[in-house]
Design a protein that fits this description.
Blueprint: H1 21-32, H2 41-52, H3 58-64, E1 66-67, E2 74-75, H4 78-87, E3 91-97, E4 101-107, E5 114-119, H5 120-125, H6 132-136, H7 138-152
Antiparallel strand pairs: 1-2, 3-4, 4-5
Helix pairs in contact: 1-2, 2-3, 4-7
Length: about 150
Amino acid sequence: MSADNIPPVPPAKVTVPEKYADAYFLANVFAGAQVNRLRSAAQAFYLILKGESFGLSPADAVEILAVDEKTGKVVVPARLFLQEFKRRGGDVKPIEHTDDVCRMEFVPKDGTPQVHEWSKADDIRAGLRSRDIHARYPRQLLYWRVVGNGIRA
């Protein structure tokens, strides 16, 4: 029997719970339009569901969030974590912010304040200073490193 004689396999029917029907439909639309380097409807669906936890619309979720190609995990920008931290009553206070160091105090709503910092030396140790963007925008990148570390702590 040759490959030409094998009948095509019909696509599997997917049953999606009613509460996810709209997200599943949009995931297929976004994947078909190849939005934001999506590889499949499953990736789009994953981003839409993750985006819901940050209050993002499906369109914003597939635009703002991404899937790391190596790990398959969702990459969430630090600004979303900062927004959620503040929405829950947390506060962030800058202590020092230069091209060489950024130090901030993170005060959770019902917790103990913690000071976090990221410096040029930390960038070098992490191998980040060899990237052109770190040389052009050191203050901004130090800031977002501190935010990411402080919110996760």
